[in-house]
Amino acid sequence: MTDAAAATDGEPLRVILAKLGLDGHDRGLKVVARMLRDAGVEVIYLGLRQTAATIINAAEQEDADAIGLSMHNAGHLTLAPRMVNAVKEAGLDIPVIVGGIIPDEDITELLDKGVAAVLGPGASTDEVIAAIRDSVPS
Amino acid sequence: MFERAVAGERRALGRLLTLVERGGPAGDELAEIAHPRAGHCHVVGLTGAPGAGKSTITGRLAAAASAARADDTPGVGVVAIDPSSPITGGAILGDRIRMDEVIDREGTFVRSMATRGSSGGLALAVPGAIRVLDAVAYDPVIIETVGVGQVEVDIAGTADTTVVVVTPGWGDAVQANKAGLLEVADIFVVNKAERPGASDARRDLELMLDLGAHPVEGVPHWRAPILMTTATDGTGIDELWNEVGKHRTWLQETGELENRRQSRDRFEMLGRVDELLGAVGRARAESDHGVRLLGEVKERSMSPAAAASELLNDLLQ
Amino acid sequence: MSTEPSRAAWEEAFAQTPERDVDFETMSGVPVEPIYGEGPYPGQYPYTRGVYPSMYRSRLWTMRMFAGFGTAEDTNGRFKELLRHGGTGLSTAFDMPTLMGRDSDSEWAEGEVGHCGVAIDTLPDMEDLFADIDLAGVSTSMTINGPAPIIMAMYIATAEKSGVERSKLAGTIQSDIFKEYQAQKEYIYPPRPSVRLITDLMRFTSAEMPKWHPISVSGYHIREAGSTAAQELAFTLANGFAYVEAAVAAGLDVDDFAPRLSFFFNSHIDFFEEIGKFRAARRIWARWMKERYGAKNPKSMLCRFHTQTAGVSLTAQQPENNIARVAIQALAGVIGGSQSLHTDAYDEAMALPTEKSARIALRTQQIVAHETGAANVIDPLGGSPYVEWMTDEMERRAEEVFAHLDELGDGSILEGVYEGIENGYFVGEIADAAYRFERNVNAGRRIIVGVTDFTDGDEGQKNLLRIGPEVEEYQLKRLASVKQARDNAKVDAALAQVSADAADPTINMMPSLIEAVKVHATEEEVVMAMEKVFGTYVEQAIV
User: Fold this and answer.
1) Shortest Cα–Cα distance, A42 to chain C (Å)
2) Burial of B300 (0-12, 13-18, 19+ CB in 10 A)
3) What is the distance between the alpha carbons of residues C49 and C35, in angstroms, rounded to a whole number?
4) Contact yes or no for B51 and C541 at CB 8 A
5) Residue of chain B with shortest Cα separation from C537
């Protein structure tokens, strides 16, 4: 296991990866899944067409450290904040990280609405891992 | 936290399973609390080659079990095991995807688990997870593993009821035999039964069972039934659930259940012995005594085996 | 047309089509011949150098720009504008809920209605889309797959209501369901019932709609999902073979059906590899159709294709650089012998193209067509040692894939494709390739200008086009009023018939689909009526 992927207490991070809504572009999600695996992370891969409810359900049962969402359609301003709220309403303290094609002008809005980090296309493994590590509450 | 899990809080149960996986003092403490309250649930092991449709069958079986459960019970526990990368320690756990489509989400608790490299770790984590799920009244608990690799086979094989899944196609049954799955199977499932070759697969299994069957006088004998399923549409799942129930009854009536559980306890205890002894041995190897012995091995005045015996001399009396 | 692969035969065939009225010379005034080098010549088996004898010497490729958003009425306005300017081809993009068989009032549709195409819920939406357009006089291309037979039913019903018989309708519907499981992921049902639906559509159009192309076999999305050029080539052609086998199994004659197939490829940034890929596609398709499937009609052997530049190659950083990328990709598509071409707008990585960026994209094609001289000589790189080697290499790699699928399917490419979908072969191969590419980029082994290197000067994106909530509000009202006005008893009966027909694989689904949309059953209602019988599909986690 690489140091980067170890949670603060030396155990591997467990991260949920999913896409919300109908959009089927999963190339980025799959690349990130492998990236994280190769950095020592345990990826709970939910894939396409998840809802906030199915992700919360998995996050509780899997005791996930973070939720990663990939977004390539116009819905990010609706769907990502909704996920953040669902996490809060479930009483969970799990960061929501968004990756994908997000216009610069929307990034601030997403962060204001509680998204822990936004990763653009071309983010390196180190950047992805750092974003997760910095977001996970110690 | 244990009480919160008993009260039905899934988050708490999720957290407990993390403690079990991590092991160490917190895990031991949890086992102390959980062990007296466990011992009720039926453990079903489900294994087979990659791509045989195990996740869908597990999900469907969990749905059937959940539908049959009593109102005041939390439902079905599922532990789905996927391999960790031996190089990086990371893993991609993808069993939930096809399971989620078919389970009753209210009545099912699914936990994905990575093998985390060391086989010993998994051999301890799985009984620990079963114990916790059992103690908070999940029944049955289904353990899904890929049927390649001795540890995975052992884990499925030490269940109360072991289900081995094969698919039509030349040699699938033969491969199952080679992997040692034939001996551990209590029930066979030929999945994707709508495909050509399904009846051939069934015949191959029958044949191998005939060859391998040597009932011994006075020892209860169970001949593994062969069921045909199409997991994608649920065909044959009710029959499978029935058969699991029959096997459960048979285990209880013949006393075989007690035998199996005892061997599982023994398996876990010995696993823990290995772990403890190993830890002691490694610590001693670092001591002055250990370093001196290693030096003698290097000088070829002592063999590694003799050095190990001397290191643990007091324990081996 | 003579089948003799000689220069004389080619010259004879070439002379039969008049050339464009331009001076075929370089900008310095040097006259150029239509073709240089060895045969087989264009229009001669195996068509490596082009599907027609004269190619762009007689007619340029079609500059087909695919776009659309908003309501059916908005798109109708743009269609009419296009027709007024002499256009004859209408290209229809649908929004994500429509592509996935969901109505605008589904919870899944929220935030997506009218975004990347037009929203079609019921027949009245389709009637709005083509209002006051003579459907007998246009050719319509519809990019939809999972629910394609339902949308086709709506198109037929719209035409017939306006007095145009279905036999007069011309156009293409994508209907390529295999690549959905492999790459684009816009599937609804499991593979086999999906193929049954498409086979029904093929049989129906063969019997009743002679001018309709029921499938456009699409590699574009396979490449976008991360495949290599050789995988795009191999998977696409294998899918084409699989449809041919499905059609033949459904009782169609290969020479009745194959001429209606067309293809859709990606043009990426590795110039010579792309050209080799296009040339290999023609050669492979011709040989397989002739030798494996016994086609007699030369038209069955022609791999005619539409090309689009690689959306995935566009960068969000320094977006103007994309104009250069698109120009190079467009040139590869043209030298590769495309029948039609779409050029991406430089800002498409981030959002819908603006009017300006869409115009620049079209201008890029026009520069290639009218300034570069690339259209003066057919297959201008044919005979180049590198390009000929690349063509052979692409073919060799594709043949390896075909051999694997043939083995998986026990002698049937169709069964091999099914098995490859079920066992994760396609998605696994594509994910491997995508990951390899990303790792190379990450490790600094592959440079992406403006992203990994040469990054100074990025001003970010400006003036992004956004769709307001009005479209969704309008569409919800529209759907509610259609549901209000219709006769629900008729809808229920029609949906019951759809379910009953779905349960009997010997019945063609098209008639009951047409009846259902005529009584204003919604797209999602019809989808669900079949889902009851067909079930749904969930991809296994091949990452």
Assistant:
1) 13
2) exposed
3) 10
4) no
5) B232
Q: What is the mean pLDDT of chain B?
A: 89
Please tell me if residue C435 touches chain A, with a CB cutoff of 8 Å: yes
- Look up tokens 């599982």; give the residue: B264
CA distance B133 to B42: 11
Nearest neighbour of A22 by CB, restricted to C102, C350, C431? C102
Confidence band of A1 (pLDDT split at 50, 70, 90): very low
Give domain limits for chain C: 55-442
| Interface check C224 vs A, CB under 8 A | yes
The pLDDT assigned to B118 comes to 60
Read off the pLDDT of residues C35-75 as tens digits, 9 standing for 90 and up.
999 999 999 999 999 999 999 999 999 887 766 667 888 88
Provide the token pair at B297.
């091995």
Q: Is the pLDDT of residue B170 over 80?
A: no
Residue-wise pLDDT for C332-368, tens only, equals 999 999 999 999 999 887 777 887 888 899 999 999 9
Q: Which 3 state secondary structure label does DSSP give C227?
A: coil
- Provide the residue ranges of all domains of chain B, joining segments of one domain with +: 37-254
Q: In this predicted structure, what is the pLDDT of residue B102?
A: 87
Given a cut of 80, whether residue B137 has pLDDT beyond it is yes
**Is A24 close to C185, i.e. CB distance below 8 A?**
yes
Chain B nearest-CA residue for C423: B51
Q: With beta carbons under 8 A apart, name residues in chain A contacting C467.
A: 74
| CB proximity B101 to A under 8 Å | no
Alpha carbon of A35: minimum distance to chain C alpha carbons (Å): 8
Chain B residues close to A26, C-beta within 8 Å:
none
Could you please state the CATH topology (level 3) that the domain comprising C55-442 is classified under: TIM Barrel (3.20.20)
Which chains form contacts with chain C, at 3 or more CB pairs under 8 Å? A, B
Backbone angles phi, psi at B13, to 5 degrees: -65, -40
CATH class of B37-254: alpha beta
**Nearest chain C residue (CA) to B55:** C540
Tokens 């007095």, residue? C163
Residue A4 has pLDDT above 70, yes or no: no
- Where do runs of H (alpha helix) occur along C85-228? 96-99, 123-129, 148-161, 178-179, 191-208, 220-224
How close C527 gets to chain A, by Cα (Å)? Answer: 15
A41 vs B17, B90, B100: nearest CB: B90
Quick check: A127 pLDDT over 50?
yes
Q: What is the mean pLDDT of residues C97-116?
A: 92
C407 touches chain B (CB under 8 A): no
3-state helix/strand/coil string of C10-76: HHHHHHCCCCCCCCCECCCCCECCCCCCCCCCCCCCCCCCCCCCCHHHCCCCEECCCCCCECHHHHH
- Residues from chain B that touch C540, judged by Cβ atoms under 8 A, are 55, 94, 97-98
Exposure string of C128-140, with b = 16+ CB inside 10 Å and e = fewer, is bbbeebebeebbb
Q: Which helix (H) or strand (E) holds C307?
A: strand C305-309
Chain B contact set for A1 (CB, 8 A): 88-90
* Alpha carbon distance B31, C345 (integer Å): 61
- pLDDT, mean over chain C: 93
Average pLDDT rounded to a whole number, residues C9-24: 95
CATH number of A3-135: 3.40.50.280
C-beta of residue B96 within 8 angstroms of C-beta of residue C543 = no
Q: Does B84 contact C at CB distance below 8 Å?
A: no
Using DSSP's 3-state secondary structure scheme, residue A43 falls into strand
Which bin fits A3, alpha (ψ -120 to 50), beta or left (φ > 0)?
Answer: alpha
For C120, residues 6+ apart whose C-beta sits below 8 A from its C-beta are C72, C94, C98, C126, C129, C151, C154, C523
Return the SS3 of B110.
Answer: strand
How confident is the model at residue C460, as a pLDDT?
Answer: 64
Pairwise CA distance, residues A18 & A33, whole Å: 10
